[in-house]
Each structure stands twice: as structure tokens, then as C-alpha cells.
Write a structure and sequence with these properties.
The complex is a heterodimer of chains A (about 300) and B (about 650). With about 300 residues, chain A is of the alpha/beta class. Chain A folds into two domains: about 10-205, Rossmann fold, CATH 3.40.50.300; about 220-305, Helicase, Ruva Protein, domain 3 (Orthogonal Bundle), CATH 1.10.8.80. Chain A is about 45% helix and about 15% strand. The longest helix of chain A is centred in the last third of the chain and has 17 residues, at about 245-265. The two termini of chain A are about 25 Å apart. With about 650 residues, chain B is of the alpha+beta class. Helices cover about 50% and strands about 15% of the residues of chain B. Chain B folds into three domains: about 1-190, no CATH class; about 220-505, no CATH class; about 565-635, no CATH class.
């Protein structure tokens, strides 16, 4: 589905990144949406489709620092958060920040990390702070976490518990690039180096300001509130679904809708803002009944949407 | 390659529907007026161009109004000499008008039904081989069309490959084929519907046990009482003593049996004699093995085609009563009817009878005038203790003599017969009347049920220029005077249903219906359009009427709808776009809806409206007067 961007700043970011992310425009837009909604992103995809590339490019264009964690089952929480090392000269412990103290952090194959490490990560996501040895450290602002997981591999993985999935604002997948783009990529070789050439399009302060503006200025009318509630109810009363959308899920819908409206230069949300992004914001939050596990959650969401009347 | 070509199901459906309609049209083409031929062809062409080219359908409201007009016009034109043609012409126009609108499931069904009516109508004109061809075409095509129609109603966009279509049609053909064996079954029954189907299948036993026009004495020893109904008489209640239902007069005695002599009755009734209180009875007569029509004694008039009224007050139908028959008979309940002249020879006829009987007659009547002679014969039966019995009747060569002198018991036949013989032996004219006596009254529906066991014979004697009814049979047997048992009562009440069925089906009065129809038609034809002068005086009424309409409309708006401005706006918007062929789904956002519009220019216009509406709707702004004005303006542009 084509997402039309009208906001000038956002479209500038997209235009500047487009040459480096051929065929991934949709994923780029969704990532920006998640970023400006102050949420975190879960990319569920096969390896080698440009997840890292997307994250790095995003960091460059937004003028943000970038960190990366490759998860393995022996990864410790301190490998992410950092640890204190004794400094002989000062005779004290110095805190060495881990990769999480970056603006954008890519957590690769998050389902390979042990639950302990996962929960440390997720705490950071939720609280925007980490506590190490009794001391609390604020994470930098903005803070945007992109986690990836390979949906096909199950051996030696620790699937994220459902309640932790709920903390991701969106779950997307990148998918294979179109034929022509793929040909171009092969022809030109990997352009990873060229990504470093991308110069920031906006300042850090600007994106912080925009994040704030979105939360504060975009209006959700009574009608739209009702609409969101209707959707919640529909997911909760669906016969295939054991646990429907939570209140946190509802908040996520509203945040994404607000950002969507902002991207289109509107200061109010319309049903389309919800409808368009529901396939990314809702499916990973639903827990289906055991016997219906095979059902495609995205299709389920689409069918639920067909039951809910547009508020007019 | 070809087999994979897909065809829209709508196209197939339309094609078949047109063939069905055209078949129907062709079947009556030769029989309808030239104007209707032209209208039919014109409408057919118009609807073809609408369906396959322009796709600009006529509005449903207009179609419906036209339909009403056509029906009205058809009704106006109906002529009782040729009622079929206007109806078929009307149906033909109706059929093609139906094609002009955008057709939904029910419209297709209506088209098939009307086509069927037209085809059936064509059978009124001719039913040669061409009818069979038209019929088979419709028969199979309608079967197929209905199957395809169900596909179509599921999803209008369905496209089928040639293979799939062939398969569907083959399957659809099976359905009418299966019904053919049933049709064959019906074929054997239907052509015989001149008789009611029910009677044909289950012809009731002939009710001969009760009534007969041949009274034979002495050949049976017992008579079974038969409780089956012979007739029902719709009438007010009368006293039990006058419940004599006259059937046939028997005037010839051959010594054993009484029959009706085959002669013209020459009795001359006095006009005065037939006057009195008239009791009208509506009689539902069950089929039985004879042609006599019953009526309360004495019947003076009957309305039934072919019924013959004899001067001895015997009424005969023109044929044996083979099915339930309804007639109305008028009677005066008089015991004596003045008759100016009779054929005395006929009514005093006697065969050779024994001296014993002659002597008895003589001893009873010697030296008396006619009246006292009759009295003494009548009282002879009660004085000598004659008894009524249905059992152990004498089977002898001389039943009458044995009854009179030996047994002294018998059924009504013996009593009546003996009375008549004794009278005739003394030269007093007498005759036998066979009919029924008594009956159960059903107070709910107001009618008498008369059963076969009430069959009775009595005597009539001619004294002083009067035929007088005398009944020498002891009265105890009379049905109706006996109290009805509980079971019988229930039977009477249950019989009510039977009675009403008869009344509606047998008593169905075609003339009455036609009269009603004529009245209705003349009322319609009698409608005069007011002249201008008249109109003036109507103005206040018209204004008043319009005022009421407006008030109702307002009330409906306020009470029934109670829609917000927003709802009404969107409703209006959707109505306008629907005309252009765009229908918003309930779960479709306005912008997504706009995206479905193909015409870019129009899309821009719609988008402008949607955008401005959204700005008000989704920002919790209460629409101001300006807003409303602006919205309406934008809407008008759509």
C-alpha cells in the first residue's frame, strides 16, 4: 500500500535515503513512522535482506549514533548495557557504556539471546534507562531500538514471550527487493561503504522536536477514539483470538495514527491512519487460541477491520 | 487456450434471461396488438443497448410507477369477451420494462415468472407444436438461469471458464430432467380435472342404502342404519315436525314395489296454494346414485341449471348427481297444498289385491266422507298397535298383507305403502313421497346435516282439492327428535369444517365473482377527471392534503431518523456517488473510498469534499452554518 508522505522534512529524509535503500521504501517509511512515534521496531525477516543497512542508513540520515548487538545464547546483559571496570589511576570503578547507549541500536536475532538478556533489553526499551550496580543511567534521547528475528529458525532460540512482543510498536518485514532493484544491487555490488557517505538531513534536536510535536498537536477526535475502542472490542470478541489488543496496544495504534497524520501534514487522525498501519501494529499483540495457531494474523486483522464500521 | 477463456457470469445470466423473455414474447407475438408488438420490440432494443452498451439504467422508482400504470391500464382494458389479450399485452410490456432497470436477484426471478405467465397465456390461443418448442426452451433455460442466478447473487464479479460453464449448464439441465417423471405422473391426472381431483381419486360410495325411488317391500329382512351424510342444508332452524325433505313422488304400485310412472304430471297447482312463508335453503348435496334434488317439503322454486320442476313437486337434475352439488331451493312449509286438478286414474291405480285388504279398506271407510275416511285409516295404524322396526321384516310373497294382518311391524315403507293402498282401495287418490325426515342442526354454522339413516317414506292424500301429507309411521324413529349423543354432537361440530369447505369450493359462485369484478371495473372507469371549475373547490382539500404530507414527512424526519447533520450529509454523499456507480463499504474510510474512483477529474472533486468534511468530522468541530453551506455546495458539484 502506497504511503503518501506530505510532510517536507520526512519526505526529504526519504528522498535522500532512497538511492541507498532501493526497493525498501515501504520498510523505510514504516521505520520512520516507528521512530517518530517514539516506538521500537521488530523486523521479522530472513537474513541478508538489508536489515542492518536500513538501520545504519536511518541513523546516518537522522544524524544519530548507531550501535549494534549480535545476539547469541551466551550474550550477557552487561554485554548490552555496559559494565564497570576498575580504574587503577582513579582507584574507582569506571562505567563503560555498552552499545545500548546509542540513539539507534540494532539488536540482531533477538530470539537467540537468553531470556535474561532479552528482559534487560526490554526493560531499557520501556524505561529508557538502565540500572547497573545500583546506579541508574538515562539512555540517550532519542532512543530507537530495531530488533530482528529470523522467523524460520527455531533451533537454539528463545522466542520472545508474548508480553514482550507487546513492547514493540510495530512488527514489519522487509521482504525481497523487486527484480529490477535486485539486479541493480548485484550489478553495483554491496554499497555498504557508500552508506557512510550519507550526510544528516535533520539535526537530532529537530527530530526530538518533531516527536514531541506529533504527540502534542495531532488531535484524536471522539469519533476516532470510539473507532479505536471498537477495534479493540472486535479483537477481544473474536472467536479465533484468546487475548485481543491491550490498552498498550491501543496506545500504540493512536501513536502510529498520529505520526501517520503528521506525515501527511494533518493535525487530526482519520480512520485510514489506523486501518493502514493496523497490519503492522496489531498482529504481534494478538494471542490466538491453540487450535487456530495456523491462521495468518495479518489476514485475521484485515477481516476484523471489515467488521468495524467507519465512524461518520 | 479457448477453454481457459473466462466469461463474466453476469453476461451469461443476461444472455439467458433475454432468450427466455424473447421466447415468451415470440409465443404470443402473433396474438397481441400491433402497438404492443412495436412497444415490445422497442423496449427490447432499448434494454439491450442499456445492458450491453450504455449501462445507464432507469431508476427503480420510475420503473415501479410505470408498472403500476401498466397494471392499471391493463385492468381498464380488460374486456369480458376476451379477457386474455389485454392481460398478455400488459404482461409483455411489463416484462420488457423490467429489463430497463438494474437487475437484482428478485428482478431476474420476476422476469422468469412473467415469461412463464406469458407462455401459459399463449396456450389460450394455440397449443400446437410451436408451443412445445417454446415451452421446452423456457423449461430448460429457466432451470439453468436459476442455477446461474444463485452464483451471481453470491458474487456478481464471478468469472467462469468455458469448461466451468459447460459443467454448470449440464448440471443445471439435470434439475428439470429429474422433474420429468413427476410431470408424467401429473399428466395422467390433470386432463381429468373436469371432475374434482379428490372425487376422482377417492370416489365415495354411492349412498343408495337410504334413498331410493323404487320402494320394494318384503325382500330384505333388515336395514343397516347408514350414518353417512346425504346433504347439508344451510337455513334457519325450523320446528322438527316440519322437517320433511321431499325427494321423489312414487305413484305406481305393482303389488310389491312402488315406482314413478313415466308420464307427464298433469296436476294443476293453484296459485294460491303455493303462497306462504318462504324458507330458503342452500343445499350441498353429496354425490349419490340418482338425480332427485331434495328440499324442505314443499319445494316451490329452485335455482340450478338444468333442474326440472314437476307439478307433483318432484325436482330432478338433468343427470345423476356425480359430484358435490350446490343449489338453492325455496320451500313453503305447508302440510297441504291446494291442487285444482289431478289425474285421478293415476293416483287410484292398484294391481290385483287380495280381498282381505279390500275388505279392510272397505270396513274402515264405508259410508264416510273423504276426510273421515282418511282419518279412520290413519288412526287404524295407531289403534291396532302397529310398531316400527328395521329388523325381522317379513320376507314373503304378500308383504303388504302379512304386514297388515300378521306381523304388524315394519319400517316406514310398509306404513306408507299400506296407507296408500288402503286409501286407493277406497278410491281416494294417494301417492308415496320418498325423502328424508329430521336432521341434526349445527348451530355454529347454521345448517342441518341429514344422514342416510333419516331416509323416509310418507304418504300424500288428495282431499278437498288439496294434497295433504300424512305420515302413519310411528314417530319415535325420527332422527333429530332423539337427543344427539355426545359423540354425535362432536361429529356435528367437526362437520362444520366440512361444510365450510363445501361452501367455499362447491358453492364457489363464478357469477358473483364476475359481478364483483364488473362493479370494481365500472368504478374505475367511472372516475372522472375534474374540470377546472371543480378544481377550484378542491384547492383547499389539496392544500390540506399536502400540509398533512409535509407534517408526516417532518415527523418522520424528527422522530424516525433523528440523524445528525453529519449522518445526513454522508448519506446524501453516498447517494450521489452510488448514482455514479461507487458504493462505499461500511468499513471503508472516505479516503480509501475516493481512491476507488476511476475518473480523475471527478475524483478530485470528491476528494475536496472528503477532505473538508474530515477536517470537521475528525477534529471534533461542531459544523457551523458556513460549514454546512460549504459542504452542500461541494456536494452539489458531485
Amino acid at each position: 500500500m502506497a504511503i503518501e508522505i506530505k510532510n517536507q522534512t520526512v519526505s526529504r529524509i526519504i528522498t535522500s535515503l532512497a538511492p541507498y535503500l532501493q526497493g525498501k521504501e515501504n520498510a523505510l517509511k514504516l521505520s520512520l513512522l516507528a521512530y517518530f512515534s517514539k516506538g521500537h521496531l521488530l523486523i521479522e525477516d530472513l537474513p541478508g535482506l538489508g536489515k542492518t543497512r536500513l538501520a545504519v542508513a536511518l541513523a546516518r540520515a537522522l544524524g544519530l549514533s548507531f550501535g549494534r548487538v549480535q545476539c547469541t545464547n551466551d550474550l550477557l546483559p552487561s554485554d548490552i548495557t555496559g559494565l564497570s571496570v576498575f580504574n587503577k589511576s582513579t582507584n574507582s570503578f569506571d562505567f563503560h557504556k555498552g552499545p545500548i547507549f546509542n540513539n539507534i541500536i540494532l539488536v540482531d536475532e533477538i530470539n537467540r539471546a537468553t531470556p535474561k538478556t532479552q528482559s534487560a533489553l526490554l526493560e531499557a526499551m520501556a524505561e529508557e534507562q538502565v540500572t547497573i550496580e545500583g546506579k541508574t543511567y538515562r539512555l540517550p534521547e532519542p532512543f530507537f531500538l530495531i530488533a530482528t528475528q529470523n522467523p524460520l529458525e527455531h533451533f537454539g532460540t528463545f522466542p520472545l514471550p508474548d508480553n514482550q512482543l507487546d513492547r514493540f510498536l510495530m512488527r514489519i518485514s522487509i521482504g525481497y527487493p523487486p527484480r529490477d532493484f535486485e539486479k541493480d544491487i548485484i550489478r553495483g555490488g554491496s554499497k555498504r561503504d557508500t552508506i557512510n557517505l550519507i550526510s544528516p538531513v535533520i539535526e537530532v534536536d529537530d527530530s526530538l522536536k518533531m516527536q514531541k510535536e506529533i504527540r502534542q498537536t495531532v488531535i484524536i477526535s471522539e469519533k476516532m477514539l470510539d473507532y479505536i475502542i471498537e477495534i479493540l472490542q472486535a479483537t477481544r470478541n473474536n472467536k479465533y483470538i484468546k487475548v485481543g489488543l491491550s490498552t498498550r496496544g491501543a496506545l500504540a495504534l493512536s501513536y502510529v495514527a498520529k505520526t501517520s497524520a503528521y506525515f501527511q501534514d494533518r493535525d487530526y487522525i482519520i480512520p485510514e491512519d489506523i486501518i493502514e498501519y493496523l497490519p503492522y501494529t496489531a498482529p504481534h499483540r494478538l494471542i490466538l487460541h491453540e487450535q487456530y495457531k495456523g491462521i495468518d494474523q495479518r489476514e485475521l486483522i484485515q477481516s476484523i477491520l471489515q467488521e468495524v464500521k467507519i465512524p461518520l | 487456450m479457448k477453454a481457459n477463456k473466462e466469461i463474466s457470469i453476469e453476461l451469461i445470466l443476461k444472455g439467458i434471461s433475454y432468450i427466455i423473455a424473447v421466447t415468451a414474447f415470440m409465443s404470443v407475438f402473433m396474438h397481441i396488438g400491433i402497438v404492443y408488438k412495436l412497444i415490445g420490440v422497442f423496449l427490447l432494443g432499448l434494454s439491450l443497448s442499456i445492458d450491453f452498451k450504455t449501462r445507464i439504467y432507469v431508476q427503480r422508482t420510475i420503473i415501479n410507477l410505470t408498472t403500476v400504470f401498466i397494471l392499471f391500464a391493463t385492468f381498464y382494458r380488460i374486456d369480458l369477451n376476451d379477457p386474455a389479450t389485454p392481460v398478455i399485452e400488459g404482461l409483455t410490456v411489463l416484462l420488457f420494462v423490467k429489463f430497463l432497470e438494474e437487475k437484482a436477484f428478485r428482478d431476474y426471478m420476476q422476469i422468469y415468472t412473467i415469461s412463464l405467465f406469458i407462455l401459459s397465456g399463449s396456450a389460450l390461443y394455440n397449443i400446437d407444436m410451436s408451443f412445445l418448442a417454446f415451452f421446452l426452451t423456457q423449461f430448460f433455460l429457466t432451470g439453468i438461469a436459476i442455477v446461474i442466478l444463485t452464483f451471481y447473487s453470491e458474487n456478481k464479479e464471478t468469472r467462469l471458464t468455458i469448461n466451468a460453464i459447460t459443467k454448470t449448464i449440464t448440471t443445471a439441465l439435470l434439475i428439470p430432467l429429474i422433474s420429468i417423471p413427476m410431470l408424467i405422473g401429473l399428466f395422467f391426472i390433470l386432463p381429468r380435472t373436469t371432475l374434482p381431483l379428490f372425487t376422482f381419486l377417492n370416489r365415495p360410495e354411492k349412498g343408495i342404502t337410504g334413498f331410493t325411488d323404487n320402494i320394494r317391500l318384503g325382500d330384505v329382512s333388515g336395514i343397516q342404519e347408514d350414518a353417512s351424510v346425504i346433504f347439508r342444508a344451510n337455513m334457519p332452524r325450523v320446528d322438527d315436525n316440519s322437517l320433511y325433505w321431499r325427494g321423489v313422488v312414487l305413484d305406481y304400485f305393482d303389488g310389491i314395489s312402488w315406482t314413478r310412472s313415466n308420464r307427464d304430471v298433469t296436476d294443476v297447482l293453484s296459485q294460491r296454494g303455493l303462497k306462504g312463508e318462504v324458507i330458503q335453503q342452500g343445499i350441498f348435496l353429496e354425490p349419490y346414485d340418482n338425480r332427485y334434488l331434495f328440499g324442505l317439503d314443499r319445494p316451490v322454486g329452485i335455482n340450478m341449471r338444468g333442474a326440472r320442476f314437476q307439478y307433483d313437486l318432484t325436482v330432478m337434475a338433468d343427470d345423476v348427481i356425480k359430484k358435490r352439488t350446490y343449489y338453492v331451493v325455496n320451500s313453503i312449509k305447508q302440510q297441504a297444498v291446494e291442487t285444482i286438478r289431478i289425474d285421478t286414474e293415476v293416483y287410484t291405480q292398484l294391481p290385483e289385491i287380495s280381498d282381505k285388504v279390500k275388505n279392510l279398506s272397505r270396513s274402515l271407510t264405508e259410508g264416510k266422507d273423504a276426510l273421515s275416511a282418511v282419518n279412520s285409516i290413519v288412526s287404524f295404524f295407531s289403534e291396532k298397535n302397529f310398531k316400527y322396526s328395521l329388523q325381522n321384516l317379513p320376507i314373503t310373497q304378500n308383504p303388504l298383507e302379512d304386514f297388515l294382518f300378521e306381523y304388524r311391524f315394519g319400517n316406514c315403507e310398509y306404513f306408507a305403502s299400506a296407507t296408500a293402498v288402503l286409501l286407493r282401495a277406497s278410491g281416494i287418490p294417494a301417492r308415496l313421497v320418498v325423502g328424508y325426515r329430521g336432521g341434526y342442526y349445527n348451530p355454529i354454522a347454521g345448517y342441518y346435516v341429514v344422514t342416510q339413516q333419516s331416509a323416509h317414506v310418507w304418504t300424500e292424500v288428495y282431499i278437498n282439492r288439496h294434497w295433504v301429507r300424512i305420515d302413519t309411521t310411528p314417530g319415535s324413529f325420527i332422527v333429530g327428535q332423539r337427543d344427539a349423543s355426545f359423540q354425535q354432537k362432536i361429529r356435528i361440530y367437526l362437520d362444520t369444517i366440512n361444510y365450510y369447505w363445501n361452501q367455499m369450493i362447491i358453492g364457489y359462485d363464478f357469477e358473483k365473482q364476475m359481478r364483483g369484478f364488473r362493479t370494481f371495473q365500472s368504478t374505475i372507469r367511472g372516475l372522472k377527471f375534474p374540470s377546472f371549475q371543480d378544481l377550484k373547490s378542491f384547492i383547499p382539500y389539496i392544500l390540506f392534503f399536502i400540509g398533512i404530507l409535509i407534517t408526516i414527512k417532518v415527523i418522520i424526519n424528527v422522530v424516525m431518523q433523528r440523524k445528525t447533520f453529519e449522518q445526513r450529509l454522508i448519506q446524501d454523499f453516498e447517494k450521489r456517488l452510488k448514482k455514479k456507480g461507487y458504493i462505499r463499504k461500511k468499513h471503508q474510510g472516505l479516503r480509501d473510498f475516493v481512491e476507488t474512483i476511476r475518473d480523475d477529474e471527478y475524483k478530485q472533486k470528491v476528494f475536496l469534499f472528503v477532505k473538508e468534511v474530515e477536517e470537521v468530522f475528525y477534529k471534533d468541530i461542531k459544523p457551523s452554518r458556513q460549514h454546512k453551506k460549504r459542504f452542500k455546495e461541494l456536494l452539489r458539484a458531485l
